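Handout, section B. The chain below has 95 residues.
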Amino acid sequence: MNETPVKQQNTGAYYGQAVASFGIAMAAVAVGIYNMDVSGWVRAFLGIAVLYLTTSAFTLAKVVRDRQEATQIVSRVDQARMEKILAEYDPYAQK
């Protein structure tokens, strides 16, 4: 009984929604920073802070995904070992 896990894939609509949501959020923050009644230095600082936060969020998402994938690989190796042991085990064999 060898079960291969089904790889989950996102639909095109889901991908498009995620890209659109990201673009709208970044545009809204950029417009908000641009329209603030503060000096250019404050706007520049806020812009850099938003870019840093965005890149940090992407990095965190990648690290979490990589850790989850590594856990799944180890789990599959352990499952394959267990299946091999169970397939070779004969409870009625004479010792």
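Note. The helical segments are 12-34, 40-88. Compare this with the example in section A.
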